[in-house]
Every structure is written in C-alpha cells, then in structure tokens.
Queue: 4 jobs
Job 1
Amino acid sequence: KLQFLYFIGTMAESGHVGAEAVVRVLLDCGIDVMFANPGTTEMGVVEALDTVPGMRAVLGLHENVVTGAADGYGRMTGRAAATLLHLGVGLSNGIANLHNARRAGTPILNIVGEMATWHRQADPLLAMDIESLAATVSTAVFTPCTPHDVSDHTAKCVSATQAFKAGGSRVATLVLPHDCAREVAGPLRIALPSSDSSDGLAMSPFEASLSIDEAMNDTFIASVVEKAIAILQSDGAGVCFFVGGQGLWEGNIQRAGRICAATGATLFCENAFSRVDRGEGTPPCHRLAYFPFDAKKELGKFKSIVFLGARVPAAMFGYEDGISQVVSGQTVINIDTHDVPGALEYLMRALKAESASWKSQTPAIKPPKGKLNAAKLCQCIAYAQPEDAIIVDESLTSGGSYWQASLGCKRFSQLTLTGGAIGQGPPLSVGVAVACPNRRVINFQADGSALYTTQALWTQAREKLNVTTVICNNSVYQILKIEQQKQNLSQTGSAAKSLTNLGNPAIDWVSLGRGYGVESVSVSTCEELLEHFSKALTKEGPYLIEARI
C-alpha cells in the first residue's frame, strides 16, 4: 500500500507551457535524468530542458538504446529516469527494452510525443495508436486532452512508477500531444510519495501495511506472512527461499542470507534476475537453471517455496516435454509487497536471525592461460574485474560458467537480460554508468545480441562513460544452435546454417567500435585479454575488447 500527497500550486511565473510543466513536475518528483531521441513533436520538451534547469539529457541514436539506458539507470538507483520518444514509431523502436524493463520491475517514465489534438483526424502519415502500443509494457498510460491536464497527468505517471507488485510493470507512459506541449498550461500539480522508504519512520511500509490490514479487519497479508514464518521455523531445510527485486541488493541479500542460515532454507534467485549484489560478504545464492526440465528438477527437491519480490517462474518456451510451470506439487507461499527490504527485515526479526551467519566460500581465482574459449573467457573476467564493478551480463551461451567462476570475487553487482529481448547489454551499460559514475562497468556481451544496439557505443563515447565492453565473438547465434539440437531439428540445411551464422562477411568489431569513437582491440588469447582488460580499467571513457572464441 503506497499513498501519495498531491498539492496544487500556481506557476512561479505566468506563461509556462505544457512541456515546461512536464519538466518541472519531473524535477520536483526527483526525476532528473532523461534519455532521449526526440523528433518534431518533442522539440518543445527539448526547449523546456534549456529553460527549466536541472535535468541531465542524454542522447541515444536509437530508441532501444534510450529505453535500455533508462532500465539500467533504474536498476542501479531504484529511481525512475525519463525517456523522450518520437511518436508511436519511436516507442515501437524502443519497446523491446521496455519489455525487459517491465520484467525487471524497473521504474521508467516515458514521454511520447503525439500529433496535435486537432490534427489527428487528418490521419497524418506518422499517426499510430500510441496508447495501445504503450499498454503492452506500461502499468499506466495517460494522454492529456488539454494543456491544463499536462501537469496532473505527469504527476500520475510518476505515482504509477512507484506502485507495483512482484512481476508487475513499473513503466508509465505520458502521451503528450504537440499542442498540449507548446500551449500555456494550468496550475502545476506535483505528486510526491508520502513514504518511499522507512527513513524517519517508526515502522517500514511493509509493517505499516500489516497494521493497516489489521485495522481494516483484513488478515490476508498477515496470514501469508505467518504461514511463511511457520514453515521456515518448522522445516527450513525443506524450504526454497526465492527472492527477487531489491531483496537481492546490498544489505537486503545479507538479511535473506541470515534467514536461510538461521532456518536451514536455501536461497534462490531467478535465472533472468534484474540485479544481484554478489561477491565477498554476501551469502550463497543459487541461480535457477534456464531450461525448464533442469529448473523443475532443482525446485523439486524442496517441499515448500517462499517467494518474496519474485514472480513464480515459468518455462521460457513450451518444449515437447510439456513443461510450462516449473513449480509443481510444492507448497507455495507468495509474499506480495512493494517493500521487499521491509519484509526481509520483518522476517529476520520474527525468526530471530539477526546474528545468524553463513559459511563463506571464496575459492581462489587463478588466471587462465592460452587460447580463449567460453569457459576461459569467464575465468578471465572473474579474475580481472575490480572490486565494486558492475557486470552487465548479456553473454548468453558464452557466459554460462561465469556465475560459478565469479564466486570468489570481491563485491560486485551483476545485471542480466530479464525479458529475453536481446540487444539489452550495451544500452543497459549506458544507464548503469550514468547512475554510478564512480564504479567500473563491464559489459560482458554476446556478439549477435550486441549488433541490435551498437549505437550505444556512441553514447558511451559522447558521455565519456567508463564502460569496458567485452564482445564474445563466436560469429554464430549459438543459442539457436542449441535450440535446434534440443528440438531435434536439422542443422545441416542451407537455411539452418545461413540463418544462425554471423560470418560471410565477418563483423569487424574493431572498426565498428572505433567508428563510434570507442578505443577498440581484438584478442584471441587469455594473456592478450588480461593485458587489454587491465589497460581499459585505468582509462577514462569506454573501451571495447573483441574476444575471439
């Protein structure tokens, strides 16, 4: 339960137009970064960025870079960034990474330009049903009909990014008609969360929700929590504690670890997790297997599964084995709350687990030698990554052993592809680096996926972002080869070969990176990779390493 305070004030000066009202509301609500690819209908907002100081504007050369960057920013800060997109066509170009953001539970506020209200009836060439398109990824879509509605609808979008449930979208979209942006707006309406955290409060929002339920004679949430506590106390060894969202961030993942240490439960996270803070000082956490048969086998070892901040996992695709749900036959308890950190704190105290500790496992990481392959590439990155690094992992098949290889690393954060829409890694790295300028960002990146959004390299160069991109160049869509084999399909036909191969012509990654203004090299041995990796980490700005495996 999240409550918001609304207040209406008059403009400091007369004559503010709708576009300025949008920027003012965003800034007053704490949104001060905008990733943008504007067009004709959004130029009023661009002007407002100059007349209303305080917003950092970052240009992306493709809308899927813009939306992916906003996702990365939100995953690291917990706050929404804004995007500025040109009409329905711009939104459609960026919708793949908005889908990933929806699955990650990342707060994003899209501003999508629209034709002037009086011009829509003419059916201009760029006209689309923007609201229907936006609804596929958004928890809320608002379209002001007059300039006087603009500030109120912007405020409602901000509110929508902060109210969510596990597995639900935190993406909100403001469809801004051209005339509403450029004409004088009405009173400024600002939405501010009354309690976005537990700072200064006697109880967390989670505990407050239990108290509100009790006062309203609604015991549903309390009964779910009591059941989870009872199962963890009575049969902890038979319990999978499946945590997601902010429950896997620094501080919170330690609370989850103490709960498991005190009860004997096993901590799990999704395969496609949004962010896990890992490394030294964090508890053992099992990453669910990707393929449904393996995932179902893993979870089948437990009598009960307690979900907190995570959706109940399902198979990515329906194979001939008929597995759709990977959870089957167990007792399932789903604690559905927006305040996952508060819920973890509550459970930890209820289980008297505040002082519980886990057995740390920090295997020594040694540098591999010789010709690179996928496994050695994972070992090289784990060996060389600095403390407090952020690993943006879209390595896919090449990075299959990285989770295990990095168990002995110093503290770091790892982000993955959450919705299956490839081309996320380079844009995500942009947003992560904007959010955390003092941390080194390493984009561990599959070559085929990177080709969807290489324009992100230009933004990295322009903004001088400290991103080191390691391209896993196997010149093939290896995941499709695996899928062919898994589905007993022929791999010998001309189409089967041609549509999964990235050669002929070979991608020149060094020239491509340099063309975007990024220093780039190519390596084929562990020794070469480690040499250039070390160099990249001492330089300011982006660096690209093509790893031929």
Job 2
Amino acid sequence: MSSEVDLRSQRAVMSQREETEDIKSHEGNSKWLNAYYDPMASLYTLSQCMTLSDINADGDSKLVIADLGTGTAQMKLKVYKGTSLMSENTLIDLPTGVVTFYMDITEPRTPGICGGVPAIAVASGPYMYIYKNLKPYFKFTLPSMEINPVESDLWSQVRDDKIDVMVLREMLDGMRAEGTNLTVRSLKFCQLAQEDLELFANIHKHSPLKRQTVITCLNTMKKSMADDDAISCLVLGTESQQVYILDPEAFTVLTTMTLPSVPVFLSVSGLYDVEFRLVVACRNGNIYTLRRGAKTAKNCIELNSQPVGLERMGKNIVVGCMDETLQCYTSKGKKLWLVKLPGSVTTMEVVDNKSKGFRAVLVALSNCEVHMYKDKYLVNSIKTQDIVTGLKYGRFGREDGTLIMTTKGGGLIVKILKRTAQFEEKDPSAGPPAAQNIKLNVPKKTKLFVDQTMRERENAVTMHRMFQHDLYRLRLNTARSYVKALENSLNPISTNPAEPLKLSAQVQGIGPSFKLTVNLQNTSLNNPSMNLLITFQYDDKLYAVQKTHISVPMLVPGLNYAYETFVECLSDKGISDTIKVFILKQGRSVPIITAVIAMPVSETMVVV
C-alpha cells in the first residue's frame, strides 16, 4: 500500500513539474521574469480589492489586499512587504473595494508622521473604513435612506401590540410584491419560518427602523492638483443607484449623482475643482458618463452583454463583456472595434509603462491565460497555473513594472516586466493590415473643388436628366445594332433553331499567299444539317480566292468539319482588307451565319 502511495505522489510531482516547464516555455512568458509564485497563499480577492502604494513613505511600495475569506468569515485587510505578510487587520463585513489616497498636504512625506503618509480606504457594506499607519482612523457611514411610511407604521403597530406578526408578514410580502424598497429588517423577517417570527419581532421591534444602502464600487479622484501625492477625493457607487464624492479631510458628501441602475465599475478622470468625468458601468448592461455639475447621467452606451471589466485608455473606453468579447468605444459612445476572446473575461487591468510611453490593457481569461491588448491587437499572452481573478500592475517594492496576480485557488503570482521587452502590434486574425487603420493625410479642399461641388448641387436635376438621356440613347443604339446583326446573320453562332451551327475561321501564312481554314460544327443534339454552301465576299482587286464557293456535305451533330482554301494577295502596297465568310442554305437568300475575317498585311513579294 505504501509503495502505491509513493508512486502516486511521484507521478503528481512529475506532472506538476511538466506543467511548470510548459508554462515557462510559453512564448508570451518570455517577456516577464518569474519573481514569485505561492499556490498556497490563501488569498481570495478581486482586482477592486487590490492596490499598490507606498503607505510608509519610505520609497518601498507595499501590496494592500482586502481578502474576501470564505465570504462570511475570515475577511481581513492584509499588507505585504515583498513576499512576506507585514500587517493584518480583521474586517467585519465583506469588502467591495480598496484604495489608497492622501488626506492632507503635510510636507515632507515622512515615515511615522500621520499626515505624511497615504491612508487606506476599505469599502465594506454601508461603511468606509479609513486606516492611517495601518491603524483604524475613521469610519464613514453612508447617508440613511428614506423609509417607506407604511412600513414604519406597521412596525410601530407591532411594537404597540396592535397587530400580530402574521398580519405584519402578510402586509410586508404584499409591499415587496408591489416593488416597494424595504429595509433589511423587513426583508429578513419575510424570509423567516413561521415559528421564528415572534422571537425576531420581539428582539427588534423596539429598535429604530433604519434603511441603509451598501457600497458597490470605489475609486479616487484628485481634488485640485494632478500630482501623485496630491489630495484625492473618494468616489463611491452604491446599491441605491447613486454616486457620492467625499471630502478627504472632513469626510462629508461633496456631490451626489443619480444613475438609472446600480453602478458596478467606476473610471475617473480629471480634477474635482476644475473639471472631471466619471465613466460608470451599471448592472443593467449600460455605460453612463457623469460630468462636473451634472446630477444625472448622459451619453448612454448600450452593451450586448453584461460588463465584467471597465478601463479608460486615453479618451476611449475599453470594456470586457460576458459574451467573451473586448470592445472599445469613444467617450461619445461610438464603437471603434470589437475583439472575440478565446475564453470568458474574469478581470481587467491597465499596464502603464511611463518610461517607454507604453499603455495597454491586461485581460484575464477563464482558460488560464492573461492577454495584453494594445488597441485591438494582441501583443502578449501569459500562461498561468490557475484562473486569474485579481490583477494589479505598478510599482511593488522598488521595481516599477511589477504584475501582481491572484488566482481562483488562492495563489499569488508576481512577475516583473523585462526592461528589454518589446511589444509588436500584430493582428493574428485574417483581414486588412494594421496600416489600413492609419488615417490618410487628405489635402484641403481647393477653390476649384468647392466651385464644382456648388455647381453640381445647384444643377443636380439638369445633370441627372442629361445622364438619363445619354443612357437611354446608348441602350437604343445597342438594341439597333443587335437587331441588325440578327437580320443580316452577322453572328458567328446561328440563332435559327432549325439550323444550329457554329462557325470559326483562321488565317495562316505571312503572304502574299494565305491559307484560310473554315471550321463548321452542328451544335444540335439529333438533327443533321444538309444542303449547305460556303461562299466568300472580298475585294477582287486586292485578293484572289482559289475556291470561291465550297459545297458542304451532311453535318453530323457534335463533329467539327474543317474546309480549306488559298487566298492570294494581289497588291504589293502593304494594305489589307476583310473577307466575309457566309454559310448559305439552298433555297434561301439570307445567310445562316456570317464571319468577318480581318486579313493580315501581306509581306512584300520576294523575287528570286
């Protein structure tokens, strides 16, 4: 038994080594240095709950992670210095976002001074927890929402024993069915079993009724300056379809904006005191834009599927959707491009390499790969050991180009971008080259072009009538020529169904003697052709034909018959003419078919 266990363990180790070697040999991984990999790190988090910041102001950036734990327990705020755990704080509720920001303008940024280091903001439920020097500093609570007066009156009657718990539950179920927004207490009460209603009501009926929302997304916005260590405001998206902008010093609500749906992703640009723009992806599958001074959203972008990631690339919006696509839109909502992905999108992150002026989007997929896109072109692909659920790119420790990845199984991967890495924009899909997307340098409109455009605009009706007149005349001349050809039998193929013949002729020789060969074929299926005659029309002063007429025997269908005669050129002036070949039938004056042969110019007669 022990030998079988040892054999299985050896096979497992060998398979793991082979998988690691395959990942290292992957072409896209050659541009990254494998700094660290711990599959047993037990970090269960998302990109929104990860950030990199110099929280001690010592030039050494730390990794701040809000660990989701099991979803109901063991939620913690963890800080990593390098690959070792530096600090750990317990969170009461499930975190939805983590950011770092400067609260004041204390100079210099000195370690140990409370005002000189950035603060950590953790969104959890209806609260915003602020940490300074890795210690609890402040707790902000979202403003309470208005309670439905009917719901408040029902709980008041229960407190005064005017109605029993069964009537309360029936009334609350009716309100929820009508779409009324109830408090958390009422929603929990409606979910309880009948025997637990009385106990729940006795515990909570004397407490004041509150209705609070929860934070769904979190970001920061520079207040008055765009410096890296400038004061930043907190931007919150809530379940009540509202966006709050908080003052970083007093933690009061500076601006409240309303959205048509619940926000799930926030992208911020600009300064609060000057001009700013918020791009918000909502739960209804739409993207909205909020500007300074606006209370409601504008410029709606309707997606075909639910968004799972949103990033800003300059003035464009890049969004990953659940239908395995990566799409790009302008700020006004015009779609620029769409890329079909080989797997479902799990998370997204922006790569901003300022030293090389390179910006791209990282997209983690469900097939254990991370793709890097520059515009719509795939420039790099990273193979990982597990599905990546969290991405963060930036300065970690003292290295600028560091990529932090957390996996579905709780692993932690750290990669460093090589300083010699070069990314080429190549389109792997079939289609036009990348140069086609470059706009042409179209010259300015000249005065002649403008005058011609004005003339066409003023005389559009007259020009169209002239065009139609010329078109009808061309059609008429074509029809007349066709009828004339049919009447005179000028076609090399017979149009008479009784005599279906095909005629071709060729001339051999350089002159003054030529050999003229006439090929005749009966194209019918069963009926032979009889009593036919071949004759020629030519200028007798220029040419002399040896056989002026040739009798044609019966033509069997499908066979090709060749008839030859010699033509002598009588002129030595180097001129030529045409010879017409007629196929006649006895008793008819009109030829069945006609061929016109353009004779070549005869060479000068050589006298020996």
Job 3
Amino acid sequence: LFRIWTAGFKTHKMQAILAVLVVASYCMSFGEAQVPRVCSSIEILVSKTCCPTPESNSSYGSCGVNAGRGACTDVSEVCYTGYEEDPTSIETRLNWPTYFFTKICKCNGNYGGFDCSECEFGYTGDDCQTKLPIRTRKSITAKTDEEWSTYNQQLRKVKKALSRYAIVLPTNLSDISTAIIRNISVYDHLVWSHVFAAKTHFDGYYADGSADDYAHESAGFPTWHRLLLLILEREFQIALDDPDFSLSYWDWTNFQGQPDWTSLLFSDDRLGGYNATGYLTGNYYDQENWLTICWPRPENFTNETCDPTDPLGIRAVIRCNNNTACTAEAGLFPTEADAYRALNNYPLWRDNTGAEPYAPFKKFARFSFGNYLEGFSVLPSSGEFNPLNSGLANVSATESVLIGTLLHNIPHVILGLGSIAYPSKVQGTMVSEGASPNDPVFFNHHTMIDCLLDKYLKNTTEGYVGPIGNRLFAGHGPNDCLVPFFPLYTHVDMHKVGSEFGFQCDLRNFTAPNSTAPQPDGAMQQIAQYNVLLAALIVFAFAYILF
C-alpha cells in the first residue's frame, strides 16, 4: 500500500544504483521461509524432504502412507514449478517451495495437513469423510460484551502460544546448513507469512501493473488471503482447543463513507482505543501486551530479512486516531453502493482494452471484480496512480464513476495514516503492505473481503483465471502453490464457495445504488451501442464508394 502512495515519484539515479547493489548483495546472501517445525532441523533442510510421520500415530509412517492417508511425493506433482530461474540471483519463493523442499506430503482424499494427520477444511472423523457443521462468520459489531472479552483473551493467548511452524533464516543461500532457526508464536507466524509473501519480486517493481509480489496486485490476491484466513482459523482452533473458533468480519460499508472513531467498536474493550499519538490503548493491544514484528521497515523490502526475534523491529500498533484527518488524506470508506457494483457488474478478471495478453491480470485492468475487490482499476496515461476514492488522476468523469472507491485498499490506508504525531505521513501499521497483520483489525477487514468473494463465487460459474508460466506474475498462476504455506495449496484449490471449506458468512445483501451516474453495465451497453453505430457508418461508407 505504501507503493500506491509513492508511485509516480521519480527516484534519483544514485538511489537507483544503490538499490540495485543492495538487491544484488541480498540475492547472494539472504533468504527465509516458514516451514513445519518438525521439518526445521538442519538435517531435514539439507535433505530437501519434508515428509514427517504424524506425531499422533507413529505407525502411520511417513505422510501416513501405512494408513492410506498420503505419500511422500515430488512438489511438481502438486504445484507448477516451471518458472525459469535467474542464474544471477536466487528467489527463494519462485517455484515454491522447491528452494527448501523438493519432496513433501501429498494427502489422499479429504486427509490434510503437512503430515496428512488432519482432515481438509470442513471435514472431520477418523476417515475424514464426515462434513463438519457449517461455521458462520458473523459481524464483529454483533459481539456481546462477553464475546468481546473471550475473543480478546483468545488473541492474547495465540500471540504467546508456540506455533507448529518455525522460521528458517539462511545466512548463505548457497549453503542451507548455515540457516538460523527461530520459533515463533501462532499469531506472529501469520504476520510473518504475510510479510514474506508481500516482499517485492526480485525482478523489481513493475510500473506497468504486473504483480509486484506473491500475494497482491494480481489474480491471486483473493485466494491467497482466503488461505491465510483458513490457516488462521485452523491454527487458532488447535492452539485454543476450540474447534468452533471463527473469524468475524468488519463491515465498513455501514459507515457510509465516514467512520466514527468515537464509536464503541474503537474502544479499549473492543478493537482498541487510542492515545494522543495514535498508539493503541486498552486491555489487550497496548504497548506492553501487543508488540509488532517486522515493522517498521522500508517498503519494497526485497533486500530485507525479517527475524521475528529482532528487537529493533518491535513497536506498538499505530492507527489513525482522527476522524477528519484520516478520511481527508485517504478518502472515504467504501459504501454499500461500491459493494453492490463489485458484486453485480464485473467478470472475475477482464480488461476491456485487450491490448496485450496479460492485461487482464494487471492491477490496473478495467472492469475486473478481482481488481475492484483489491482496490485497483486502470493505469492512466500519466502513469500516476491516485489511491483516493475519487479513483484515478487524469481519467474522465465516466471512468471515475466506473472505478468507484477501492474496497480493500482504502480501509488499510485510512487506518494506517498514523497519528497526529506524524501529520501527512504514512506511518500507521495497517498501511504497511507486509506487516499490516500486526494490527488485529487486519483479519476482521480481510474476513469482510473474503465474505465479498464468497458472495461473488456463489453467483458465478467462472473458475479461477490467472496467468500461466509468466515470471512477471509468479505466484499467481492457477496451479502455483501459495507462498509460503504448508501444506501446499494452489489458487484453484481456494477458488470455491466457503461452504466447501466449512464456513459461511451472514453478510447482508447490498442494494443497488440510487444514482443516475453511469454504472459499469450501463457503460458496456453504451460501448455496444457505439459499436453498432460504427458498423453502420462503415457499411454506409462502403456503399457510398461502390455506388
């Protein structure tokens, strides 16, 4: 999100040269990953095989093979691994997870987990054939005082509970045996995963609108974040011994544009209050009880390694704490009309220009649900992107109407503008593209995004559409495995209605906007009318020439 605000500014030549040198140095000496803790020993990393025996029953054998649950297999049987490597650098996320492991567990049927000891999302039983009752993701504003107390205590617990995953920090990419292994908490593991996936591609920042990382700005944004939420719910359920734990969504369309920071939602006993400098206050998220990881740090941080134990990166969560300043600098919250337009007027991925084969998957593609959901639309002729709710700089009034506000990005930017101690600066936690999950409201916000995705998927038969084999979009192809998760899932795996994973949302239906302004479907109708008129003129011209 920081890149949105800095796009269009020119970089000094010397800064560019230094950046290239830094990245080149990084490529030769740094890298990282999160892996199952049972596969984090140096011996296993050197073997490049993560096929553990389930701890719950050693008789199952590796990947539960003796019980028919799964088998140790090549990664290429699960994921697309055909991206061409750059001989001058090492990108540890490319062809995930082959830099770290070339053999992993592939589970049969509804068996799941990195060792096939679990069931897939939405299933239970010894044979994983029993469908779980559908869990309902409810509005966060519907929580009672008791439910808020329980929820915040649960967050505090998973912030400290040891994760089943560990962080691998190689000090030399040519020798994995030099890696440093760090334990991490259940909550911070999810933050770290987002940080790692959000690092910019080693190929650099793509001003043409191609994907800049492995989780954002292309076709994989909705499905990548869906898996993050599913893994969160699974890991919380295990850590809390609560199989019914479900996330709640934050429906910011209820603000109708203007938020109310004085509301009960932003109080000490809810999502956290604020002090004069924007730091969170309250019983759960104050500076003593809720320390961030991997933040603050520079964005476009390809050359940065995130050690979750590094005290230099620890800082309290900061949110914008002034109603007027937040919306004045960032724009208004998305409205019910914006949600309705996104759900009712766009195909999943499309660019109406058809100028190049990968245009539909760029973050500025027009008339695309995926881009509308994330918060991008078109690239104006000036090449400068304006993240405000007015849409884009240097576009026509009609295009601005078609673009509307930015469903996912704007709440990030509003909450992340920082405090009055940092006027007009991008300082808040939520505006960090990688480290934003440090703020717990991130997951309520993204549950809302996932609920919108679920509504969309219920009304379309369109399968996952994404670029295949193009390195500029690595990580977003249909069968690319989602970085950096274990067990391995592809975008196609995640492109299903929520009930397939055992959840549903009670998100309300959105009504059509009461506006005479042109809507996307109206624009398409106008374009069709113009095409008919143009065809008629061409026929008339030929007739005039011939006769």
Job 4
Amino acid sequence: MYTSESNWNYSPCRRRPSYSKQSKEELDAMLAQSIAELNFHERQFEQNHLHGVGEAIVEVDDEVNGLLRELSDHLMRIKGGTAYETAEGLNPAFVEDRAFRLMFLRANRYDAKASAGQMIRFFDMKLSLFGKEKLVTDITMGDLDEDDRAYLRSGTTMVLPFPDMSQRQIVMEFPALRPIGATANELRAKYYTYMEALKSENAQLKGLVIVAYFVGEFRERFNGAGFRINTKFAFALPIHVAGGHGCYDDQGQYSLVGSAIMTLLPAKIKTRCRVHFGSHQECLYHLSTFGIPSEIIPIDKTNYTVKIDYHKYWYQERLSRDTACGQSPVPTPMDVKPCENDVLYVAGKTCINDGNLRLRLLAKRYVEVYTKVREPDKKAVVQDVIDEIRSLGGRFLSQDGSSNGPWQEMPMELVRLKIAQTFRNLRRTQNAAQAIEPSAFRIESGVHPCPKDVILGKLRYSSKGNELVRQLVSDLAADYDNVSRGNKAKIAKSIVQEVRDGGGRFLILQGNEQWEEVSDEVAQAKISRLFRNNRRHRKSTSL
C-alpha cells in the first residue's frame, strides 16, 4: 500500500487568501519551497507520481477490509446533519457499497480519515447539484437537462481516447468552449464526465491526468471565483490527480493561475501541478515532457482548432447506452451488423476478424514508411490504410464492453488515432526484437537460418523470429484462451503469417544435421502448442 495523503481532507474554500500576479521566477521559487516542505520519501514519491514512474499499487484484501472498517468508523463520527446521513437513511446499500467506498480510498491513497471527509463533501455537492431525489442513484443522461447536455456536447471537458505514456487516463478542459449558461449546468456536466471516467478501475488506481488549455483562441479571462468553485468541486469528487497541467499564452493569466495554485493547494498536490507558458507548439512540447504525446491532444496542428469528433462519439455512445436503460430522452441510433471485412474494436479485447487481420498486415507493410516520414505525411500513410480497408467494403466498428452491446461506426478522427497507435505499438515491438542479439546457429549445408527465422525444436533459441513469436503469444494469450477452437486456429495462423510477411521462415534441424523448412500447417500446430504451454505456465505460477 502507498503512504496516505491526509491533505486531501483539506478544503481550499474554507478561507479566501489573497493572491497576486507572480513572475515565472517567483512561481518557480514558490514551487521549490513547497517541494522543500516535504521529506525525502514524499518528494521522491510525488515526483515519480507526476511523471508516471512510480510503483504499481497492489491491494491486499485483508488490508483493504481493515481500511473500509476504519472508514466506517470515521463516517460514524462526522456524518451528523450532513447530506451523507440523509443518503444513508434513503438507501444504506448505496452508501455502503464496497466498490463505491473503495473509489474514495483509492482517490485518497488509502487514508481512511481523508476518504471519510471527502465522502461527506461528495454527498453535500451531489445534493446541491441534483437534489435529494438523485442522492442515492447513479447519474445518467436522463438526469441532465438540455442546458447540462449542451455543456456536455460542447467539449468543454472531454475524456481523451488514449492514455499518457504511463497508461493514465487524460481529461482535457477547454473552458473557452463552454456555452452560455449557469455554473450549475457546467458542474453537472463535469460531474457526469468525471464519474464516467472513474468507472475504470485503472483510472482509480493510477489517477487522472488533467490538462486545462487556455492558448490562442482557447484563451479565457481568468475568474478567481470560478477557480475556487471548480477547485472545491474537484476536491469533492473521488479523483486522484496524478498530474495537473495548465497551458497559457497570456503572461497575466499564467501568473495569476500559478499564484492561485501555489496559494490555495496543499504542498503535496501543488508538486504534481505544472503551469506552462508559450505558444501552441511550445505548450504541446511541455506536455510531451511529462509523457503526454502531442499526437493524442485533440488539437489540429495545422490551424490549431479543437478536434471534437471523438468527443461526439463518446457522447453519443453514452446517450445510446442510457437510452437502452430507458433513461435517456433521445432515441438510440440504428445498430449495425459487422461483416468479415470490418475492423472491430471492443474495449479490453483483441479482435480476430478478417478485417482486423488485414489491418495488422497493412500496418506491417507500411510501418517503415510511417516511421521515417514527418507528421503531415504520417497522416497520409494512415489514410492509405483506411482507404485499403474501405476498398474491400470494410468499416471501422466499435462495441461497448458487453459482448452483446450494439455495434456503431466509429468517427474518422478516432479511427485515425487508433491506426496511428497501431503503428507506434508495432514499431515498439520491432525495436524490442532488434535489440536482441541472435545466437550463433550451426550451419551445415542446404537451408541456412537467418535472424528473422523461427527455429523450432527443444532448445530455446534467441533469434529475432523466436523472440517475435514469444512476444505475440504472450500478447494474445488471454484472447486465445477465451475463443472457440476455430478462432484459436485463426490466431495461430495470423502469427505464422506475420512471421512470413516479415521475411522469416519456420526451420527445424533434422537428424542428418540439415536445416529444413516446415509447412504452414506444422508451424501453426507449433504455435498452438506454445499457447497451451503458456497457459500451463501461467496456471502453475498462479498457484
């Protein structure tokens, strides 16, 4: 377990300290002073956490159960006269739900006292935003009015489709996009967005990275009261802020916000916050130094406008889901049926549809070109892949996490991001394979092995081909275990084809000390055996 962060019990709005414009040097000095207030262990932890290089959290059931009991004890002492007590009276099961309470413990890094204080603030905030009748229900689209949904659609707050380099979920704030409306409408839309993001266990364990963007046409006049209200709102939600970033090109705003952060926030939290100053290009570069690639920021690099296609898809997907539950006032869009040439995306799963296999082959074909060309030309390579899939009647479809959920055609902006990610993942795999030195082979006569070949037999060879196969088997093991026999054969066949496309062969050393190339059928059978061995190994190590 990690050490606690009792400062999350701090409410930044108990008092209203004054803050004024500070220069960059003064802000740096204030941050250095805040860091100096921490002990060595705390400084190391917070800096690693900001850059996403800390150790993964491992929850131990006995410890978690003890912390949940401690949380209950703290709540018993402080709940009197609060909205939490009202909620407990309405539906005890809702407030005592283990997963719900665990979300607050994770947000506060297992500090039971801080978690209890935040739960009190959470229900007070929820009561003020949604009223007593919604206090013990999960908020859906149907609970938002038209003005709330206008904020939600605007992209003022959006969850990005790809995580940062440490696999942490990113939420971006574009306050300049907010439509005209009351603060309550904005906060209800933000509540829905952040609680949707927190449905992911990964977001709870690793925390969220939040980026507020005020550069160029996204610049907005700094509002001190609004900053305090939004900060208080953020402290009420069960969010662990792994990193907070503000981007500005106005010196006055940069100084005011930096001063507000240094004045209002506790030392541990402000050490995980950074304020960046500069143009679009400079701010995007600053974010990249913290593991947030510019490619995943929804800003068009040619005219610096917000790309909102994915957010519209995100909005429509949740609208459709709530409609299916009978809670949304808007009808569900028409379902589509996948065909064999479609590329399918399902959260948390690897699809083996013919369209997906074709996409992998196209990525292998174009990856060298994609890696060598500059950013504008990379987009052209991605578009070539999309055009080839479409030329055979293929579409790009997505399905929610349930196996029987509706299929929907994905917006092109999201498709381009997905294919670009496929190229980057493939390049990382290839770089890892190239870093392995091939072992010396015993060469006789006839067929001679090369580093890209897969050497079959009882000995463990370390050629690039063997390492590639081991990596692919490891990556696809979970999917292989959960599909039918026919689809298992498809997975094995796709690995054989990937080796072949890379110029590799499957060789075996015969008794006469001669190398011999085996057929695809034999190679496929060997790959299937590797999957079975991998499963047995995982079972034995889990005992």
